[in-house]
Amino acid sequence: MTERYTLTFQPGDVVVADVPRGESVLRAAMQADLHINASCGGSGSCGKCRIQIIAGEVESERSSKLDDDEWAEGIRLACRTRVLSDVEIFIPETSRMGNAAVLERELRGERKGRLLNPAELESLVTGWTLDPVVKKLCMQMTPPSEGDNLNDLARFKKALKDNFGLAKVSVDSVWIRNMPHVLREHDWQVTATVVDTSYGYKVIELESGSYCDRDFSVVMDIGTTTVWGQLLDLNQGTTLAQASRYNKQISYGDDVISRIVFSQKPNGRETLQQAIVDTINEIVDELVQKSGVEREQITHMVAAGNTTMTCMLVGIDPKYLRMAPYVPPADFIPPVRAVNLGAGIKVGRHVHVHTFPSVASYIGGDIVSGIVGSGIFDSEQITLYIDIGTNGEVVIGNREWLIATSCSAGPAFEGGGIKHGMRATDAAIETVRIDGVTYEPTLLTIGDTKPIGICGSGIIDAVAELLRAGVLSQNGKFDMSLPSPRLRETEGANEFVLVEAEFSGTGDDIVITEADVDNLVRAKAAIFAGIMTLLESVALDWADLEQIYVAGGFGKHLRIEQAQAIGLFPQVDMDKFTFVGNGSLLGARLVSFSKDMLKAAEQVARMMTNVDMSDNQMFMDRYVAAMFLPHTDMTYFPEMEATLAARAGRGR
Amino acid sequence: MTERYTLTFQPGDVVVADVPRGESVLRAAMQADLHINASCGGSGSCGKCRIQIIAGEVESERSSKLDDDEWAEGIRLACRTRVLSDVEIFIPETSRMGNAAVLERELRGERKGRLLNPAELESLVTGWTLDPVVKKLCMQMTPPSEGDNLNDLARFKKALKDNFGLAKVSVDSVWIRNMPHVLREHDWQVTATVVDTSYGYKVIELESGSYCDRDFSVVMDIGTTTVWGQLLDLNQGTTLAQASRYNKQISYGDDVISRIVFSQKPNGRETLQQAIVDTINEIVDELVQKSGVEREQITHMVAAGNTTMTCMLVGIDPKYLRMAPYVPPADFIPPVRAVNLGAGIKVGRHVHVHTFPSVASYIGGDIVSGIVGSGIFDSEQITLYIDIGTNGEVVIGNREWLIATSCSAGPAFEGGGIKHGMRATDAAIETVRIDGVTYEPTLLTIGDTKPIGICGSGIIDAVAELLRAGVLSQNGKFDMSLPSPRLRETEGANEFVLVEAEFSGTGDDIVITEADVDNLVRAKAAIFAGIMTLLESVALDWADLEQIYVAGGFGKHLRIEQAQAIGLFPQVDMDKFTFVGNGSLLGARLVSFSKDMLKAAEQVARMMTNVDMSDNQMFMDRYVAAMFLPHTDMTYFPEMEATLAARAGRGR
Known about the structure:
The structure is a homodimer.
Chain A: E1 4-10, E2 14-20, H1 25-31, E3 50-55, E4 58-60, H2 68-72, E5 75-77, E6 81-83, E7 87-90, H3 100-108, E8 114-115, H4 118-121, E9 134-140, H5 152-164, E10 169-171, H6 173-185, E11 189-197, E12 200-208, E13 216-222, E14 226-233, E15 238-246, H7 256-263, H8 268-291, E16 298-305, H9 307-314, E17 336-337, E18 352-355, H10 365-373, E19 383-388, E20 392-397, E21 402-407, E22 428-434, E23 441-445, E24 453-454, H11 456-468, E25 487-490, E26 493-499, E27 510-513, H12 514-537, E28 547-551, H13 560-566, E29 577-581, H14 583-593, H15 595-607, E30 608-610, H16 617-625, H17 638-649
Parallel strand pairs in A: 1-7, 8-29, 10-12, 13-16, 16-18, 19-28, 21-30, 22-24, 28-29
Antiparallel strand pairs in A: 1-2, 3-5, 3-7, 4-6, 9-11, 11-12, 13-14, 14-15, 17-18, 19-20, 20-21, 22-23, 25-26, 26-27
Helix pairs in contact in A: 7-8, 10-14, 10-15, 11-13, 12-16, 14-15
């Protein structure tokens, strides 16, 4: 575990606890809503984020922006200074934003929703026991003798029954073929790898000798954009390594629709299958390398993906997924051999891949997995589960009932359709604060480098901050009358300059346009309307939601209050929010550890009702009503209403 | 059906009924125990079998042995004359054997056991309905619509349930992959090929359109020496074609032991598997060609074979079959894909091969199949089933219980270990009569050609006749004092010349030696002792046997009274004997037609108890006692005892 420290900022004795060793002071301060000027995304090039170290140990780069005297006095750039102990820090007035920032901090406090660490995420679901659907069983068999000449196969099955209580065992034909040799090679000491199927146990691997102490699986979240994998220890119930790669299918289309179109070209389906198999192979390579586990000791794989990704992995024709009446090819796909997918996933030929059942064309196995991984399937609390990507999937329910929908949010939350939008990777602006007086932004980028664009959470932050600062009106238009050089008109369109060219990594200005704002509004309106429609379909209201789980890589950087400010999430108690990160991967992990969880996933898929939002008039009404910042009906957002009223009261 | 005629032989008004059109007069006469001289095996070269046609239509070759006058008088060679209507025939005195032949005929009468025609064989088992374990199901599915967007897979399963009542359906992954396309190609009209497994139904093939009217299977008896195949119409329950080939494994050893030895050499197992697959492919080629059925319309295969043959077909290591404690590798082998065997049986990739379960190393699926095919599994009558080949397998029981054993008979019944022995193919002597006065033989060969050797039934015939004629003593020695030039000593060993060089196809004499007789005696003693031991193990006697079924290609040419004469079979009522021919093939046929019969086969394998004759003192005692012609204890063979006593009384 990384050590964690407490920072104390002056003036004001503002304490920020639980800061991991090596975190930059700038980032720690912003997480605590302590604003320090910064224009260059934390790359050290603007020199605005001067701080003074009063006590404690830090490591810091010498900057050309600081002279020798300043350095001697402990002046540092907050963005280039990393904490190595508890530290006390003074923020000079020159580095502070206008007083609006303090007002905001008081107003917004520390309420951020539960951002869980990996151990907490893996403990979200309890009540399962380590009993994998695929497992190794070791046993010493009794050799045949004159008085006991039961045949090898029946003897083996009897041993499985006597030792482990397994009934209805079938044996993969390759092992029937080699059984006589394998059983005798190590004097009837054998290791059987067994999968529990709907029709009994199937022996998929048989080894001479005893190998039960090394038993591993690979679980994956097959995202349209990113594929995540984990290597699990099936004996210990632990995660040994994690890795991710972009889905190589991106070369053939950014979203599922364009990939389905590509799949209909000659060899399209095969090409796409091979692309995802290549991606998985790279991940498996990295997992094996990181963990030191031998590839041959991997006995099982689990893959969670949306309906299209699952189809493409297994090689199912996805053509009709995008054609009315939007009929998926399959719900429950039987486990497939990993080596049979495309040119083969590079694991043992006995390794099967379990996929998650899908519910509808746009409610896939990834959502089913998320409902399992987040524990909603077993919770009595009425829960809202939101997985925000190109499609925002929304689920409401608990252990008794589940309804789900998919909202065509568009790619804005992934940086798509945004002039300087980009995926949440290095050099993407992920955090934005706008001073309410000067309208000057403070920015942080992923990797603390010069910004080259803005990712989903950065866009939400920027729009929320511009709205709070009065730069942006509730109908998404810039107030061009404000005295800021950052507000300008370019080729007839209004825009706000977030980063000036001299501080950007591209050498050009990075801006947010009214068109960007409009795209974001459409995206958030679709999700909000989807939630509203689902709620109304079961006669519930916001207040009835006892938990709100936000899933997706997106969620990691997202701040609830900013999402509420733009009207993406309802304004309910922040304590109800939990960020579960990659919920699909959590579910895949559980399913590999516990066959009860596999059954739970099947049960979730069966009980989940899909509510189709296309041609749904209630949805259309809610959507139109949500096309405002945060909403046409401000009673949904009392806090934002107060904020905006306060700003108006302060003279504008 | 071939027309059948009645022949009347003069003098004596001997009527022979039920002679098929085209049968030779010589063969018809010998079947009725009417002896006509013939030394050349029915090849037309000795000219001894002169007859005169009195009335009726025949077709006959002109022979150089007959002059114009004789031809004009209706004199013909019986071996070269084929019946085309009811015929009256006069046998001149010159063509008749000595009077002993008449005596014999009166004594032996018409009692031959039931020799069933194909239709009768196929009707041995009743009470099953045509309900194949693999079948095609055609249906018109309801397309999805806005209000009914069930996914393709679930829709397909629902249609199978609604139309055919099928529950627990799984679908081969290749068809899940292509299902969206296949379902829609012919407007949701589909043909599913479904196999009924122990865990539910599995869809192994899915076609657009309707093809249920053409549905065929290939069933096989995989013999160590010969492989038989039939092509069946699964809709009609009929046999469309039959074909056979020598098992190409013969190149690697004549018997199962030598093949198991070969299998342990480098690539031995693969070589043997490919040899049988090549054999099967030739048979399938011929079946397809003969029947006009398209290869793609074959949906199922069934293979019955002994334990070693089954192992080698499936590719199982047979090594331990021949090593104590003689443990078979498997009892119930799950169906395997035909294309996965060796380089592949040339049928559709969906075609599965069902094999029969084995009971022990030397009681294999062929015997299980024979018990099903002959109807013993469903009979209340206590039945003895004998399948005579290299190993004589013997089963006793009924629907309630079954015990079985395998007797190491050796290859004598297949012509092995016999000086001029050969397999039952063209030019093999299959029928022998010895005149009790002149000791002259009358011979028939398979194919009515000049003899080149003698097959199993011919050897039994020859030994029985030599015994009856007093040429051979009960301890298997020739009476060299008899006045016959056919009895001679060559290189210190006594022998009987069956065919003189001038009438043989090899240009050499064909003889039977005392060593040949000894080998035959050992073989028949092993089987007789096996039957005795089994009977005694269940406290039964010969008289308790209500039916005796003789299986094997061997059985077709065998005459019960001759087998009884040498002591192979007990002397019980001939009406109890039935020749079932290839019982394994009959069973394989039933199993392909009816899944109830497949279950019956599994049940037979489970209930059959193997009695091991190695190290069995009771068996050894019975074996030694049977090393005599017909037996040391003549009370078992009262008829032969009387025959031999009568001969002794006639004074030699």
